[in-house]
Structures are given as C-alpha cells and as structure tokens.
Amino acid sequence: LLEVSQLDDATGKTLQFLLTEVDLPAILLTKIAQLLFEKSRYALALPGFAILQKIEPSVLQHRLHHADCLNMLGRFEEAEQQYCAYLAEAPAKAPFVLVKLGLTLGQNGKFVEAEARFREALSINPTYLTALLSLGELLVNQTRYDKAELLAAKLLQHHGNDHRVLALVANVFTQLGRY
Question: How many secondary structure helices (H) and strands (E) does the chain include?
C-alpha cells in the first residue's frame, strides 16, 4: 500500500482511515502521513501529523509538516501558529521556517510581519536565495521599488545566474521604467 505511485481517492481514504482510526506505531503513521503529503493530499495528511505531534511531541518535523498542510489548505492563521510554535521549540531558528512563516503571513495580508520574518532569515543567512526572492517579491508587490532595486543588486551579486533572480530583476527594472 505504501509503494503506490498514483494515489486515487479510495487509497487516500484508506490511508486516512489507517491514520485516524487504527492504533498504528508512530513509524507507520509517519510513513502514511508523509506519503499523503508527498502526493499533495494535504487534507488527508493533516490528521496524521496532528496525531503524530501528540504521540511524538519532540519530533519537530511533524509540527512543520502539520503547518505546511494547513498552509496548503489556505488555513493561514493555524499555519502561522504552528510555524511560530516550531520556531519557539527549535534549538536554533531555521531560516527556511522563517521564510515559510513569512510567506504564510504575506498570504494572510500581514505584510509588515512577513517582511520581518524574511529579514530575520537573512540575518541568519544573508545570501539565502529563497528569503531574498521572497523579500524582493514582497517589496515589488508593495510598490517599494527603491528598496526592491537595492535588493536586486544584492541578488545579482550572489545569484546572478538564477532564472528566478533574473525574472525579479527584470520586473523591478520594468516597474522603474528602465527596460
């Protein structure tokens, strides 16, 4: 069952039943929840990660997957709470989780907080591409082109060959009227 390449509705429902109704060992629960997650079946995986958080609270990865599921389902407030809880419990702040939190905040219209999380990630790793791109996109979306231009220069310096960087830089210069 765990080796399926295609996950049809019946198989997904069977796996969800196993997650929620059968007393399985944590290792098997983890495999099922991860499979559902990898197959983009977030609504089915969500209860599994919630259960895993209760039976293995020290495994922070379960909280992170739970937050990712909530985020993918558009449940941004709950995802925000889970990302914050992860960051509070993690031994060191992980830039990628700060970026996930920033993206979730941005999707929920909390742009000031989103920017703060991107900048916090960059304070830990100043050349972190995903944080730089996320901050750049936020600045462009807020029509803060002067700040976006400064960021574009930094992006070009560190990641000038990345197509996403070039697309963002082109967008910034187009918005500034400098084709």
Answer: 10, 0
